[in-house]
Design goal:
- The protein is about 10% helix and about 45% strand.
- By secondary structure, the chain is mainly β.
Length: about 110
């Protein structure tokens, strides 16, 4: 089973292998892992806000619209957790990738 050892998953959520992938080498990892289970969106958000710092992740921001996105950073990686669902059923998608190394370009004029 694919698993990121430093990303906890709430109890009652089941890994969905056919909707997941991961690649890992000695100095690089990237992946998208999907889980389905019982648990309201609010409960899942609270879980990640409390648990991720225990694994060294720092919360960067939370975006809420039809779904909820939590963005975390740790060392040279980013982790975006998407929570979707209705009632007491949720789908959690965990995406991990290296931080972008791109340097923002400065322009003389605003882009319209």
């Amino acid at each position: 089973m694919l698993k990121m050892q430093d990303v906890p998953v709430p109890a009652g959520f089941v890994f969905v292998p056919e909707e997941s992938y991961a690649f890992q080498s000695t100095n690089f990892r990237a992946g998208l892992l999907r889980y389905k289970g019982k648990g309201g969106g609010d409960q899942v958000i609270v879980f990640f806000k409390e648990q991720m710092p225990m694994y060294g992740w720092n919360l960067v921001n939370i975006v809420e619209y039809e779904r909820r996105l939590l963005s975390f950073e740790k060392d040279q990686e980013t982790c975006i957790i998407t929570v979707e669902g209705k009632d007491n059923r949720s789908v959690i998608t965990v995406s991990i990738a290296p931080k972008s190394q791109a340097t923002p370009r400065k322009t003389d004029k605003p882009i319209k």
